[in-house]
Known about the structure:
Elements: H1 12-23, E1 30-37, E2 40-48, H2 59-72, E3 75-81, H3 84-100, E4 104-112, E5 115-118, E6 129-130, H4 138-144, H5 153-158, H6 165-188, H7 205-224, H8 230-239, H9 243-251, H10 257-269, H11 276-288, H12 292-305, H13 310-320, H14 325-333
Parallel strand pairs: 3-4
Antiparallel strand pairs: 1-2, 1-3, 4-5, 5-6
Amino acid sequence: MVVPRTLxxxxxxxxxxxxxxxxxxxxxxxxxxxxxxDRRIRFVARLDLPEPSALDDFAEPAAHTAVLVAxxxxxxxxxxxGPADRVAPATAVLRTALQMIDVDVPEVLRVADNHxxxxxxxxxxxxxxxxxxxxxxxxxxxxYLGIAPLPDRATLQQLITPVTGPERAxxxxxxxxxxxxxxxxxxxxxxxxxxxxxxxxxxPEKVVHDGVxxxxxxxxCAMRGDVLSDDDVAWLTAVLMVTEVRDHAWTxxxxxxxxxxxxxxxxxxxxxxxSAAPACLLACTAYLSGDGALxxxxxxxxxxADPDYRLAHLLGHALQTGxxxxxxxxxxxxxTTD
Length: 338
């Protein structure tokens, strides 16, 4: 993930305490790569910790991560979460890959059971050092900045778990009505002179207008803290199937907490056949706010709904290659960056 806010890290304890705030959740069985340039955190990447038997397979993702880091950072701190027989070999592979392309790795730490160990030959913590999160200023600074980690990645996934029970039944009925309404508008806009019965290459102007109105209404409600009705969510997810409407939504997105809450809610309530677009819009919003973990989970949801959904693939590629959010925003809005 790309880090949008500043946390001051002045010690190893601060680094350890800060990692959950930087990745969005408390990592387990993970290798976290904190990339710095000019003493500033540029972004944070998390890799699954490989089993010892799969260490050879870890070489490729380690090399990919190293190349990504080298584009934006000159120094990396590695923090592994798990047992020594898994963390030490994995960090050694990634450290070697980084050093081979001239990225400095001054700290390699392993964290377990509220202790950390140095794996880079530093004798003062080779036997393990207890750390106390409450003794660090990082949690207070994070709260002030509005950053709060979740317990684990599974909890993050639960944020967009589809609704069930009576709520799902209501949304199913509302969505079927919305899709019939959309089909009627599209049929009304079909060229009567066309003999092949095909849809026009561009949607009718009224469809785009009504869709853009629905998106703008949703954003206005989000800014007021209002929750959309079932009918509004159903209609919004229907019109987002129109590319021009979806593009209006993602090019006018700003990464705000209000829009993040909106797209979490809409993604949860969307039916499978209409969920790819709102999940992608959640990914865009999370990406722009620097929440790479949520962005990846939202992309997974979009691709589960539609494996060929192009925007999800574009976003996934941008995240994998470490394109900074401001570069992405400039590209989609046609603006310039400093």
